[in-house]
Amino acid sequence: MSEPLLKVENLKQHFPVSRQFTVKAVNGVSFEVYPGETYGLVGESGSGKTTIGRSIIRLYDPTDGKITFNGREISGKLSADTRKMLRAEMQMIFQDPMASLNPRKKVEDIIGEGLDIHHACHSKAERSALIAEMLKKVGLSPEHASRYPHQFSGGQRQRVGIARALIMQPKLIIADECISALDVSIQAQVVNLMKDIQQETGCAYLFIAHDLSMVKYISDRIGVLHLGYMVEAGTKEEIFSHPVHPYTKSLLSAIPHPNPEVEKRRKSITYDYASSGIDYAKGMQHLVGGTHTVLATDTELAQWTQAE
Fold first, then answer.
1. Nearest alpha-carbon partner for 175 in 197, 198, 205
2. What's the pTM?
3. What is the H or E stretch that residue 135 is in?
4. Residue 52 in contact with residue 68, Cβ under 8 Å?
5. Beta 38-42 vs 221-226: how paired, if at all?
6. Fewest C-beta atoms under 10 Å: which of 5, 115, 207, 272?
7. Using alpha carbons only, what angle is made at residue 104 by residues 103 and 108, rounded to the nearest 5 degrees?
8. How far apart, in whole angstroms, are the C-alpha atoms of residue 129 and residue 108?
């Protein structure tokens, strides 16, 4: 296996609210993303998924831990050269396709902003050609370049966001719940577009979502987050076929089944951390097969594996 493109080690992101209280959004999360793969981060709202993405791309300064991207450490103070590399090689697709686009700018200026900042084009003609080619790649027309964001539908706006991320030909794209604001039919179109672009360009995705079915469809490996901890991680086959942690089991049991007869008999598993007796802070990552790891104490892991 090649060297990881992104390596996150013991990442912590805390937000002081007052002198007495600090929100510990992310607590010691570690994972790796390899070139050309899709790593899915799943969990309920408030589990720390978006915070991890924003910390990696340095919209937040990490409280503790080490982040290595493209062979360089990006968790500390960034040098001018490292910052330039990070801004060019890592891009982000945001959750809200309208709020992430400047309503006062035309689409060509939104998509071409990265080109302008990094002086990637030698002429206006070259810039226009690159933008037109990128619009075609994401399923829009070159004529759309002169329009404003409010003149597009939600799915089209998200395609503009994808084009903006792709224009710099990044090695890693952080997709922060980029389909959650879209209709189900449009979600499939956008995800299929992302898969096609990945095959064509070889970029890697950190796919953040809470739709487990979509994560299973697009991801190679999956990490399950809860309360800022990575409670389970592995390939999508390991997570969906042999879940070990009770929180993962509860998430999977909540997936609706398209067959109404099976759906009638489906029983969802409830999981309440407060009454479960589990203490994430005392747990360790145990390898339970292949790349499959679970956060647990020795006693908890023994109980869960015996129950199976």
1. 205
2. 0.91
3. helix 124-137
4. no
5. parallel
6. 272
7. 90
8. 11
Residues in contact with 81: Cβ distance below 8 Å, sequence separation at least 6, in sequence order = none
Q: What angle do CA 297, 303, 305 make, to 5 degrees?
A: 100
Q: How far apart are CA 147 and CA 160, in angstroms?
A: 11
The enclosing H or E element of 214 equals helix 212-218
Residue 225, classed as helix, strand or coil, is: strand
Residue 35 CA to residue 70 CA, distance in Å, equals 10
- pLDDT (tens digit per residue) in 241-289: 999 999 999 999 888 888 898 888 888 889 999 888 899 999 899 999 8
End-to-end alpha carbon distance in the chain: 32
The label of the residue with tokens 């006693």 reads 299
Strands 22-33 and 6-16: antiparallel
Nearest C-alpha neighbor of 160 from the set 183, 130, 137? 137
* 301, two tokens: 């892991």
Q: What does each C-alpha distance from 158 to 40, 101, 163, 172 come to in angstroms?
A: 19, 9, 9, 18
Quote the CA–CA distance of 226 and 230 in Å, as a whole number. 7
The H or E element that residue 176 is part of is: strand 172-176
Contacts 24+ apart (CB under 8 A), 240-245: 240/216, 242/289, 242/292, 244/288, 244/292, 244/294, 244/296, 244/301, 244/304, 244/305, 244/308, 245/294, 245/295, 245/296, 245/304
pLDDT tens digits, 78-118: 999 999 999 999 999 988 888 889 999 999 999 999 989 98
